[in-house]
């Protein structure tokens, strides 16, 4: 079997290390890069090489940005009195899809996970406390939007206790969880039904 040229093989092997990319997909992508016009390939390689150098954390919410403040924090049209706390930037992007939310965010970059040696001091909880303390007159609500798993729930409870310890009058809310649109009750698990009942609304 004919092997790939060394340079192409190195690119393929690197791509194979990416999440969800297998050997065949990596090879196809490597050949796709080979067919790209030189200008496109040059632009792509420059973006990759400067990725870490240009990308940094927003000093306010810890979203990813290329300046001191991200575009969301700089946008005065957004409601800065509501802060949604998310685990990752990808979670933030989910909220931004479809313009369903007009508040601002705080990105934790993780969740409390003792089994993997991740404590409160390893994620951006302290910065959230300081942010609330410094802007308490402006902040009206904190939405805890950590994932509905054991670690996400523990993280939300920890943050809630920390805010309450500040004797703050800020409203603390948690995302509602329950049945997704189009779901059948017979396939729902116990916890999903429990959350659906607890979060029921007047009809």
TrEMBL record:
<dbReference type="InterPro" id="IPR015967">
    <property type="entry name" value="Rcmb_RecR_Znf"/>
</dbReference>
<dbReference type="GO" id="GO:0008270">
    <property type="term" value="F:zinc ion binding"/>
</dbReference>
<keyword id="KW-0234">DNA repair</keyword>
<keyword id="KW-0233">DNA recombination</keyword>
<dbReference type="Pfam" id="PF13662">
    <property type="entry name" value="Toprim_4"/>
</dbReference>
<dbReference type="GO" id="GO:0006310">
    <property type="term" value="P:DNA recombination"/>
</dbReference>
<dbReference type="InterPro" id="IPR000093">
    <property type="entry name" value="DNA_Rcmb_RecR"/>
</dbReference>
<dbReference type="InterPro" id="IPR006171">
    <property type="entry name" value="TOPRIM_dom"/>
</dbReference>
<keyword id="KW-0862">Zinc</keyword>
<dbReference type="InterPro" id="IPR034137">
    <property type="entry name" value="TOPRIM_RecR"/>
</dbReference>
<keyword id="KW-0479">Metal-binding</keyword>
<dbReference type="Pfam" id="PF21176">
    <property type="entry name" value="RecR_HhH"/>
</dbReference>
<protein>
    <recommendedName>
        <fullName>Recombination protein RecR</fullName>
    </recommendedName>
</protein>
<dbReference type="Pfam" id="PF21175">
    <property type="entry name" value="RecR_C"/>
</dbReference>
<keyword id="KW-0227">DNA damage</keyword>
<comment type="function">
    <text>May play a role in DNA repair. It seems to be involved in an RecBC-independent recombinational process of DNA repair. It may act with RecF and RecO.</text>
</comment>
<dbReference type="Pfam" id="PF02132">
    <property type="entry name" value="RecR_ZnF"/>
</dbReference>
<dbReference type="GO" id="GO:0003677">
    <property type="term" value="F:DNA binding"/>
</dbReference>
<comment type="similarity">
    <text>Belongs to the RecR family.</text>
</comment>
<keyword id="KW-0863">Zinc-finger</keyword>
<feature type="zinc finger region" description="C4-type">
    <location>
        <begin position="58"/>
        <end position="73"/>
    </location>
</feature>
<dbReference type="GO" id="GO:0006281">
    <property type="term" value="P:DNA repair"/>
</dbReference>
<feature type="domain" description="Toprim">
    <location>
        <begin position="81"/>
        <end position="180"/>
    </location>
</feature>
<dbReference type="InterPro" id="IPR023627">
    <property type="entry name" value="Rcmb_RecR"/>
</dbReference>
């Amino acid at each position: 079997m004919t092997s790939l040229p060394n340079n192409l093989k190195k690119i393929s092997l690197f791509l194979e290390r990416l999440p969800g990319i297998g050997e065949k997909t990596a090879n196809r992508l490597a050949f796709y890069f080979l067919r790209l016009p030189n200008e496109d390939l040059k632009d792509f390689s420059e973006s990759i090489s400067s990725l870490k150098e240009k990308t940094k954390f927003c000093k306010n919410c810890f979203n990813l940005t290329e300046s001191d403040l991200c575009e969301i924090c700089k946008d005065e049209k957004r409601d800065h009195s509501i802060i949604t706390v998310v685990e990752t930037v990808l979670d933030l992007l989910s909220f931004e899809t479809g313009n369903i939310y007009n508040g601002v965010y705080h990105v934790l970059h993780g969740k409390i996970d003792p089994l993997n040696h991740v404590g409160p001091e390893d994620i951006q909880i302290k910065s959230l406390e300081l942010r609330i303390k410094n802007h308490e007159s402006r902040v009206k609500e904190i939405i805890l939007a950590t994932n509905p798993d054991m670690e996400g729930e523990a993280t939300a409870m920890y943050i809630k206790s920390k805010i309450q310890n500040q004797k703050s009058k800020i409203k603390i809310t948690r995302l509602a969880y329950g049945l997704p649109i189009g779901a059948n009750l017979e396939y729902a698990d116990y916890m999903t039904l429990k959350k659906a009942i607890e979060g029921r609304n007047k009809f």
